[in-house]
Amino acid sequence: MSSPNPITYAGAGVDVEAGDRAVELMKDAVRATHGDDVLGGVGGFAGLFDVSRLLTYTRPLLATSTDGVGTKVAIAQALDIHDTIGLDLVGMVVDDIVVVGAEPLFMTDYIACGKVVPERIADIVRGIAAGCSLAGTALVGGETAEHPGLLGVDEYDVAGAATGVVEAAHVLGPERVQKDDVVIGMASSGLHSNGYSLVRRVMDRAGWSLERQVPELGRTLGEELLEPTRIYAAHCLALARDDAAQVHGYSHVTGGGLAANLARVLPRGLEATVDRSTWALPPVFSLVSGLGDVPLPDLERTLNLGVGMVAIVGVAGADAAVARLNAAGVPSWVMGSVGTPAGGATEGPDYVQGAKGVDGGSVRLVGAYA
């Protein structure tokens, strides 16, 4: 005998039809990232990627990375703008891969939400697809999971993973970095996707709404905080392939800040000196610092402070590298050099040796921001 009050999956909060509708809305954007290497269509159990090109490699190495965008999703949810957060996701993932010189081949995404709103999910995935197009990588699959009771109806989180390939002889990193190499900074587009817990706390304490017009920023606070992460992958790969640039390594400036991330790609026994006076803090960073009275060391350990990626190049390649990056629309400049430790304090906020489990070289910050 049937119950007068049957429990259904939809009644439990999971709408399968809404998920199907979301897939239909995103299919064209996902397909636009597919080249001849991608087999099958959207919606399969697994994405297929033809790696026949690897047969031309002497020793192909696969590189992989996974990440999310942290609490920046709270800004997207508060503003009900969801078509840019995917760009952040791609940048956080693929730009870790290019640090070793690998070309990102394909990416998958995962979206967990309290309720599938097809248009919202499609917007998120369209942003991921747009980021993949900028990075030159294929979006070959993904998953949207509805978690009622765990997440609110308007809440979601995103994560992604990518796989790339690099010829073993062309791997970039500490083994290539040499004394007298030049450190080049590449400008960030803003906060990127790190430190939003700090930034949100500062703005909450100051009582600033996301709709507030901020003259120093030339737009609303929300527009500034939602500015997408700059994606460097294509530019970094092109630069690494230019023999004149003499690229030896890259550092993606994410959680931990500039010094800690740069130290990870230096060999033990070498020290990079970075001169703060070579660039001025973009307004959003000065704003966070001033409103929250955030100590400089904490600011430098948390935010990118205007530098989203760093290239380490041979001294003879520095001018060519800076010129190429600027011509490509990535503001870049010489910010320091690599040498042997010159002595001085090896403790304190201006000095980092190794980071995130890597017993690498050291970084010393000098001077004051311009």
From TrEMBL:
This protein's major location comes to: cytoplasm
| InterPro entries for the chain | PurM-like_C_dom, PurM-like_C_sf, PurM-like_N, PurM-like_N_sf, PurM_cligase
Q: In which pathway does it act?
A: Purine metabolism; IMP biosynthesis via de novo pathway; 5-amino-1-(5-phospho-D-ribosyl)imidazole from N(2)-formyl-N(1)-(5-phospho-D-ribosyl)glycinamide: step 2/2
What's the family?
Belongs to the AIR synthase family.
Please report the stretch or stretches of sequence annotated as the PurM-like C-terminal domain: 179-339
Name the UniProt record assigns to this protein: Phosphoribosylformylglycinamidine cyclo-ligase
Q: What's its EC?
A: 6.3.3.1
> Which PANTHER family did the record assign?
TRIFUNCTIONAL PURINE BIOSYNTHETIC PROTEIN ADENOSINE-3, TRIFUNCTIONAL PURINE BIOSYNTHETIC PROTEIN ADENOSINE-3-RELATED
**Which GO biological-process labels does this protein carry?**
'de novo' IMP biosynthetic process; adenine biosynthetic process
This chain's source organism reads Arthrobacter echini
CDD domains, sorted: PurM
Q: Which GO terms describe its cellular component?
A: cytosol
Q: Which UniProt keywords apply?
A: ATP-binding, Cytoplasm, Ligase, Nucleotide-binding, Purine biosynthesis
Q: Where is the PurM-like N-terminal domain?
A: 62-166
Q: According to its UniProt record, where is this protein located?
A: Cytoplasm
Q: Which residues form a coiled coil?
A: none
Instruction: Provide a Gene Ontology MF annotation, just one.
Output: ATP binding
